[in-house]
Amino acid sequence: MEPVVTVGLDGSPESLAAARWAADEAERRKLTLRLLHAWPLLVPEPTAAPAEVDQNYWARRIVHNARAELQARHPGLAIDGRLVAEDAQDALLHAASESEMLVLGSRGLEQVESYFLGDISMSVVARAERPVVLVRATTGEEEPSPAAGTAAGVVVALKLSGPCDELLEFAFGTAVARGVPLRAVHGRSVPVHARVPWGVDHGVSEEITLDAQKSLSQALRPWREKFPGVVVDDSVGLESPAKVVVRSAVGAGLLVVGRRKHRPALAPRMGSVAHAAVHHARCPVAVVPHG
């Protein structure tokens, strides 16, 4: 099976931003880009029918316009356009299983009207077998850019409570493809017994930080050896893990968070950190299933 980067299209600004991001990433990784538009009401392709009677005209136009723009930007990139007569969620989940990554548009916590966004995209993120990247449309109120002369790096959030090989492999591989540094972050809430009227007991906080730093270094060691060309920074924050991760993503080119493949029956399909990242981080967010 040919490795591809698939992007879900619906004609919205968010899905077009996702398509542009996916094209850049596919070119970096030397992969084919697949443009996918799914709509259950697609009819069999007509034979030489004029536009006014072609029931698939607008669906085909969404893919055609996106493909034309992206091909102009990336003349050497292989681009495959597909119309699928399926429910969007089912089509996207199937596409994700056949792709190196699936890329979708996102509006965070803003009002959602686009077909590929909202409940559908969140359901796909929570169930996909492969990484899903959510990309916001560019606005005039974006977060601060990195300093001049520096590249926007990759940030990966690590929980350290179990194996996370898929998560680290994706993060390091992305850093290599982009030629940028990688920052690994871990957040750990301070226990109640460490809190004192004037803040946090210094001795307890230092002990927690040293323990977390040791675990973080151990988790990163084999990946540093496997990817010696990647500049890696790591940090531990003593507060809500979700707050640590979202704050660390400011100015990043990509935030990578994990999602456990196997969670208890009554537990949410995504943890609090992944939820916070998807809803609040301004940069693209990759949700990687692992463990």
Major sheet characteristics: 10 strands, mixed
User: DSSP helix count?
Assistant: 8
* CATH superfamily heading of the largest domain: HUPs
Radius of gyration: 21 Å
Percentage of residues assigned to helices: 25-40%
Q: Tally of extended strands?
A: 12
**What is the CATH level 1 assignment of the largest domain?**
Alpha Beta
Series of secondary-structure elements, N-terminal to C-terminal: EHEHEHEHEEHEEEHEHEHE
Strand content: 15-25%
Q: What's the pLDDT, averaged over the residues? A: 85
Category from helices, strands and their pairing: alpha/beta
Notes on the protein architecture:
The protein is an alpha/beta fold and 291 residues long. It folds into two domains: 4-136, Rossmann fold (3-Layer(aba) Sandwich), CATH 3.40.50; 154-290, Rossmann fold, CATH 3.40.50.620. 37% of the residues lie in helices and 21% in strands. The chain has helices spanning 13-29, 57-73, 88-97, 119-127, 165-178, 202-226, 241-248, 272-280; strands at residues 4-8, 32-38, 79-84, 101-106, 132-136, 154-157, 182-187, 195-196, 199-200, 232-237, 254-260, 285-290. Helix 1 links the parallel strand 1 (4-8) and strand 2 (32-38). Helix 3 (88-97) runs parallel beside helix 4 and helix 7 runs parallel beside helix 8. The protein is elongated. Residues 111-117 and 146-150 have low confidence and may be disordered.
Which keywords apply here?
ten-stranded mixed sheet; elongated; single chain; alpha/beta; Rossmann fold; 2 domains
